[in-house]
Write a structure and sequence with these properties.
It contains 14 helices and 22 strands. It is α+β, with helices and mostly antiparallel strands. It has a domain of about 60 residues: Dna Ligase, domain 1. Strands 3-22-21-18-17 form a five-stranded mixed beta sheet. The chain has a four-stranded antiparallel beta sheet with strand order 5-4-19-20. Strand 17 and strand 18 form a beta hairpin. The two termini are about 20 Å apart. The relative contact order is 0.19.
């Protein structure tokens, strides 16, 4: 099989250097691909897709005309990151998560960062994700965000940036694990011997993180995963993670507050619950304290939480830290708490709530990406260079009406990774969502979810917007050495 020529799009390609040669991190993989028999890669891709369908690995897309449940889109060619670069990324992620946890704890307690004017008081007070119900809370270990998904992108110049922080109910880690399993099933002889860091311990690490944050004095804590139900877009992940951790998957109706504790209703009676990994939004968590019409949460759960008799992961109120307007201040937040510069920089960001910055945004809408501050999944974004005049006019009106609700960023040319399109390899734009666990210790999963925009030229990688995913390989130290000879690779695709 001949990989070259591979026509890059002029930006930064993760697999190939500008001269067309494989980067050191991808050289061994490329040589193994070139040894495949004609048509073998396509066969293995089809095998992977069939496996996905047979295993029921799906996600839900709301209001999709062809139905809501979709088979998870997967591309067989991985994204490869060398050990040195990953070491820098992991350190940057740990720095960021520790700072944001301190920030959330500070916001709901002493507010030193506001008093010292490191962030504007108006910025925090106007955040739609600030929860007055959380004022004065001090969670176990003083950890608010136990599970974080941080979106990283690389620009055409090769620079990595943090695009956004996901600190409420980040999703996607189950697909990271399933992508790796698929890779081993369908590409075993190529994967073998590549010295890729394992990721299979994530469920064990997640359970450890949850139990480490159990209420004080509980010797044998019981954890559950609280799901809104089968119609949620991430329900597959909820059930998958509960099964992998060996804990119960529960709905709000399965839990009850009695005698000052949370209990799970079982066929043998009530069983006390100490830790809840909640996958429902703050608004629906407790009808006594948030939305009174919620049927998804547990009445008076917040009373038990405030009393320190149950732990919630992530804690309610963490959304204030992934407000996209607050995101613009994260470098300042890191400097404030740690006295050091951020290891991973932000994308330059314009706050529309600022008069001068708003004026710049409105006069350059054809050059910028405009985002609502509290949406997710790629919804509500204006890609200025690709938008029509009417779309830009509507966006300008929305900005002028509610400036605090919008930010803008330059249109970056995301890096690409070779992706199988028919029988050919084509460059497609990608981002990366690493997952970070924070409890008594910080654990950074090696790799993460590489999301790929499957449409030519598209920068929208979200699965809800037609994107797909790839396995992410973090190589061990020394794994970029000269490749060993590969044995005959013309065996069937069933390996």
């Amino acid at each position: 099989m001949l990989l070259l020529p591979y026509e890059m799009d002029g930006g930064f390609d993760e697999m190939f250097a500008p001269d067309g040669r494989p980067r050191a991190s991808g050289e061994r993989f490329v040589r193994r691909l070139e040894a495949l028999a004609e048509g073998n890669l396509r066969e293995r891709q089809k095998s992977a897709e069939l496996n996905l369908q047979n295993m029921g690995i799906t996600f839900n897309v709301y209001s999709h005309q062809a139905g809501t449940e979709k088979v998870w889109p997967f591309d067989l060619l991985p994204r490869i990151i060398d050990a040195e670069e990953w070491s820098m990324i992991a350190k940057g992620l740990e720095q960021r998560i520790r700072a944001l946890n301190q920030f959330v704890d500070d916001i709901y307690n002493d507010q030193k960062i506001i008093k010292d004017k490191a962030v504007p008081e108006s910025l925090i007070a106007s955040s739609k994700t600030l929860r007055k119900q959380c004022v004065g809370l001090q969670p176990a270990q003083r950890v608010w965000c136990h599970i974080t998904g941080v979106d990283l992108i690389r620009d055409a110049d090769g620079q990595l940036y943090v695009l956004e922080d996901n600190m409420r109910c980040p999703s996607g880690v189950s697909y990271v694990l399933e992508n790796r399993e698929l890779m081993k099933r369908t590409f075993a002889h190529v994967f073998e011997g590549m010295s890729v860091e394992p990721i299979e311990e994530y469920p064990e690490q997640l359970l450890k993180t949850l139990l480490d944050c159990a209420p004080t004095g509980v010797s044998d804590p019981v954890a559950v995963l609280l799901t809104p139900g089968v119609h949620n877009s991430a329900y597959f992940e909820h059930s998958f993670l509960a099964q992998q951790m060996g804990i119960e998957l529960v709905h709000g109706s399965d839990l009850i507050v009695k005698d000052g504790f949370v209990h799970m209703i079982t066929t043998r009676g009530l069983r006390r619950v100490d830790v809840i990994y909640r996958r429902i939004d703050d608004d629906f968590l407790d009808p006594a304290h948030f939305r009174a019409d919620s049927c998804l949460g547990v009445k008076h759960l917040m009373d038990v939480y405030r009393a320190g008799r149950v732990s919630l992961a992530n804690a309610p109120g963490t959304g204030v830290a992934d407000d996209k307007a607050v995101y613009a201040y994260v470098p300042d937040i890191i400097r404030y708490y740690f006295g050091e510069d951020p290891i991973l920089p932000n994308v330059p960001t314009f706050l529309c709530d600022d008069d001068k910055q708003r004026e710049h945004v409105l006069s350059h809408l054809d050059q910028l990406v405009v985002k609502p501050t509290n949406e997710s999944g790629g919804y509500g974004i204006l890609m200025g260079p690709h938008a029509s005049a009417n779309e830009r006019a509507e966006c300008a009106e929305a900005i002028q009406k509610n400036p605090r609700d919008w930010i803008a960023q330059p249109m970056l040319n995301l890096s690409t990774v070779p992706t199988l399109v028919g029988d050919e390899l084509k460059p497609r734009h990608v981002d990366l969502r690493p997952f970070v666990l924070c409890g008594k210790d910080v654990y950074v999963m090696p790799g993460g979810l590489t999301r790929v925009a499957l449409k030519k030229g598209s920068m929208i990688v979200n699965s809800s917007q037609g994107g797909g995913s790839k396995d992410t390989w973090v190589l061990r130290n020394g794994a970029t050495a000269q490749p060993k000879p590969v044995s005959n690779t013309k065996e069937s695709s069933s390996c």
